[in-house]
Amino acid sequence: MRRRIVAGNWKMYTDLASATSLAEMIREGFNQSSSVDVLLCPPTPFLLPVGERLEGSGIALGAQNLYYKKEGAFTGEIAPQMLRSVGCTYAIVGHSERRTIFGESDYDVKMKVNAAIDHKLRPIICVGETEGEREEEMTYKVLNRQIREAFDGIFKEEATSCVVAYEPVWAIGTGKTATPEIAQEAHRFIRELLVSKYDQVTADNISILYGGSVKPTNAQELFAQPDIDGGLIGGASLSSQDFLTIIDAA
Ligand code: PGA
Predict the structure, then answer these.
(1) Cα of 188 vs its chain's centroid, Å
(2) Separation CA 231–CA 38 (nearest Å)
(3) 75: domain CATH number?
(4) For position 1, what pLDDT does the model report?
(5) Segments forming the whole domain that contains residue 209
(6) H/E element, 26
(7) What is the Cα–Cα distance from 87 to 103, expressed in whole angstroms?
(8) What is the pLDDT of residues 152-167, one digit of tens each?
(9) Active site residue 187
(10) Candidates 125, 213, 245, 246: which one to mutate for ligand 1, based on the most atoms within 8 Å of Cβ?
(11) Which helix (H) or strand (E) holds 5?
(12) Could you give the C-alpha distances from 227 to 73, 139, 222, 231, 243, in angstroms and in order?
């Protein structure tokens, strides 16, 4: 059966000192016997030092992005193998900030998902509609396209190493959380898409996280929904106390 996962996405925040001390504080407060899989995604320059602080803690390390080529003249990009070599076992792919600010397409996302799997990195595939798309009742159309493209070329046996994060763009960093009912409806829809692409057993084994203004005050009711298997946490993951409370809620 699928696992509960809580991932901290630190985005472009922290510096070397605050990143390592945040990792240490989370490590200290984390109960190793927890049934929740926890990972931290610090900014790229801090992957190695944060990874060192997490060694033996049971907390995994994830990248916020990756490129899909093995190596080459791609100034500024980071190859999957490089991430593996500094201890990453997860990589966020297709975050809405990558899609909207940096112009990542569904094609890029698909290539990155495939590259991650080829290098034994578990992709956390982000999908979600914008406010305008929701108002125009395009939510399911958008989710359908994003999921179909992201899982294109992914075999059933590989699909369960993928994690999906439903992050309605209008809820990210805005303080507007989707209600548990709205989130559950989208999660259920995503699960059904995975059933139709693969089968029930496979779909039941893929963790689908919710992201978008998750806080200690709303985590519990979100995570109580049957198809919400944890969270991708931005702002609240920068406070060790808030992040640990959210892990407890999962
Ligand atoms: P937020 O970000 O929790 O700050 O809304 C979530 C995300 O972007 O992954």
Answers:
(1) 17
(2) 10
(3) 3.20.20.70
(4) 86
(5) 4-249
(6) helix 16-29
(7) 28
(8) 999 999 999 999 999 9
(9) no
(10) 213
(11) strand 4-9
(12) 42, 17, 10, 12, 21
